[in-house]
Design goal:
Layout lengths: L1 H5 L3 E3 L2 H13 L7 E3 L6 H14 L2 H4 L3 E3 L7
Parallel strand pairs: 1-2, 2-3
């Protein structure tokens, strides 16, 4: 709720739990500001490049109630 109120997208490596939370919120018809899920084996540089690529590609409105996987935004 805090992230929604602050218009902040959540980024987490806890894929299992946050995907479960995302699914429950969508089923219940709740909105959220967006979630980015990633793996911890990306370097810090890869994570930052992926997050910056995502942030410059998707607007805040496009991220509402959306889940993105960092791996789709990281060049490997």
């Amino acid at each position: 709720m805090w992230a929604w109120e602050q218009k902040r997208v959540i980024c987490s490596f806890n894929v299992r739990d946050f995907y479960r939370i995302y699914t429950a919120w969508i089923v219940d018809g709740k909105s959220h500001a967006g979630i980015v899920l990633g793996r911890q084996d990306y370097s810090t540089g890869d994570q930052m490049r992926g997050l910056l690529r995502l942030a410059t590609s998707k607007s805040m409105e496009e991220m509402i109630s959306r889940i993105e996987f960092l791996g789709q935004w990281v060049d490997r």
